[in-house]
Design brief:
2 strands, mainly alpha, 2% strand, 206 residues, two-stranded antiparallel ribbon
């Protein structure tokens, strides 16, 4: 198992290994801050996603690359939302999605799948079997990121599903640190869901 993890880095440059380690660190920290409903989730997340764009472009995983570009943009949107204050109260509070937001989420999921599929053709790349999994998880994460920007608890359900899928996917691709990162992401997402649910239940009117 250790050899499988290390073999993936035999031909990697020191720079890329360092970059992946930075992504690993800031990615974990970002999810931890999200769990705590701390706005630092966004600056730490931006560092991780911007570097990940470079790594995935180099590895020619364009669906994931596009997704991380979206993450970077969406992080700015979420940062603005989480910063909004009115009458000394945060405008956005932890809540559940309404029917309209659920419908938009489903549309975002399928739209992302179509767009990422087209991106592979745009770059003239053959779509391999694992790329279809990549495209599917892109739809999950895309919607999850939007829900997080709105502080909707359903974002954690989507993160959990996507993270579980991503663990073996990145291991298969030889991106060991990213695979291990998604193991931690899965654990943190489960803990975050439980914590947000507790906060949500405590804020329910009696």
């Amino acid at each position: 198992m250790i050899d499988f993890f290390l073999d993936a880095y035999k031909n990697a440059t020191t720079f890329d290994i360092v970059m992946e380690a930075i992504v690993f660190f800031f990615g974990i920290i970002s999810v931890y801050y999200a769990k705590k409903e701390n706005i630092l989730v966004y600056p730490t997340g931006i560092i991780a996603t911007v570097i990940t764009v470079y790594l995935l472009y180099k590895a020619a995983y364009f669906a994931d690359m596009t997704l991380n570009i979206y993450f970077s943009i969406m992080s700015i949107y979420g940062w603005i939302n989480w910063s909004r204050v009115k009458d000394n109260q945060h405008v956005f509070k932890i809540s559940r999605t309404n029917t309209k937001q659920k419908i938009i989420g489903v549309l975002l999921f399928f739209l992302t799948i179509v767009v990422t599929y087209c991106i592979y053709h745009l770059f003239g790349k053959e779509i391999l079997p694992e790329n279809y999994i990549d495209i599917f998880t892109a739809g999950i994460f895309f919607t999850g990121m939007w829900y997080m920007a709105l502080k909707k608890i359903e974002n954690w359900t989507l993160w959990i599903i996507g993270d579980i899928i991503a663990v073996p996917l990145y291991a298969y691709r030889g991106l060991g640190m990213l695979s291990l990162q998604y193991v931690f992401f899965t654990i943190l997402a489960i803990l975050a869901y439980l914590e947000w649910r507790k906060i949500l239940n405590n804020n329910q009117p009696i």
